[in-house]
Amino acid sequence: MKKKPDYRTKDDILKQQRWEPLIGEPGLTQITTPQLRVVDDFLVFLEGRKIAAIWDLTKRHFIDFDVGYNSVGRLRVLKAGLSALFPRHPSVLELMAAIREKDAAYLASRKRPKPRPRVLTKSVPESALSAFYQDAIADMCAGFDRNSVMAPAAGMMSTHVMKLRQLVLSARKAGLTEEISTESVRAYARDLRARDLSPVTLLASFSSLLKMARYTGAEAEAITLLYELNRIYDGKAAKAPKTKYQKLQNTGYSPLALINTASALLKAVDELPCPRRQHAQRNGAAAIALFSVMPVRLADTRLTFGETIFWVDGKYTIETVLSKGGDPWGCDVDPRLNRFIEALILRGCDPAWLPDMREKALKGRRPLFINGNGSLVGYNYVSDAWRKTVGTGEHIARTILHTFLGIELGMAGTGMAKAACGQRSVGIEAEYQDDALKKVQRLKGQAEFADIITPEERALFEFR
What we know:
- It is a single chain.
- By secondary structure, this protein is mainly alpha-helical.
- It has helices at residues 10-14, 27-30, 33-49, 59-65, 73-85, 91-108, 131-142, 157-173, 182-194, 199-216, 220-239, 243-248, 255-267, 275-293, 338-346, 354-363, 381-390, 396-421, 429-450, 455-458; strands spanning 309-312, 315-321, 328-332.
- The protein has a three-stranded antiparallel beta sheet with strand order 1-2-3, with no helix packed on it.
- Helix 13 runs antiparallel to helix 14 and helix 14 (275-293) runs antiparallel to helix 15 (338-346).
- The radius of gyration is 30 Å and the shape is elongated.
């Protein structure tokens, strides 16, 4: 869009009556002349729409203001100007949403090169499987039995197909026929062992491939070999220490240590260079802090303001129904954790706007965790946030709480941990405490014992 050049100076613009309420504001000394020109145009636009409160602005207002301009350059200048005049104002979030929408529409209108196909290094594409296996997979998906073997559950189909695709690649690399045979199974086993996978992972791989072999009627020798591999790795998996207990060491064995980690992440947000990364770190900090003391399952972490999160009598309350069992579950959030929820509400805006933004989130049924662009995060988002910082998924939170409360409060602590986790089964605590509790009790005992003996005496009591 061609436009008449704008040669107005700052003085020319600030003489206008609409600027009188802002005369003397620090932002007027920081804003550049080009920014001031665009902001003034925007104020004229608002006057025409009879919009008096900047709080009432929406994404649509900014898009309508920029009608006729192809790129988002003018809106970016407006963003810089508004940020100078009204630092950390919520309206900038709406402006950023308008920029993203307009930029996406602009890019979509241009021809873009086709993305390169993904290069597979550990499997072949499903389309590369033989017609025989393609037919078998189709029957599996339809739920038909074959060779007196039931079709697997729909949720397991992708796993079974993936293992077959991996075996075919191993057979191809070894120069073998691309089918389930004793030779191809051995080649597949060699490739898996070369990847230094855990016994549990190897067991899952061979178990899945055994299902495929039986379903497709593979040769008896190959099926026998797969049974033997399952037996071997079932024994190894039973003896191997659970990975989650190894990862437990990274957590400090305590929800308090995790909250301290989350606090450090939240404190460092402003050091990041862009809003998208800043909000991702806010999300990560909140995911770790909140679910370290509310260790619900991943399916129950998708909380929503006004539906499962409420603001009642000056505190945040969570009321939900657990995905496993359908039991009601609720708690009052410790006030010391409020800052994590409020950081997600504010998204970098001034805390002075918290009451208004919280009310808007509650009325609008806004999800607790959203991306920087306002979209809903993925299903595994919370667990991925834990994995990035702790090294394992959010499921470890239940083990941490069982370990911590079991050490500190004994049987009473175990009962509290089961209630916090929404667990009712008798004896389930053994699954979450196991050797980890014994190990931490031993370490705690060593630490306390160290306070009452000399270094020379300590050597007599070292645990080996």
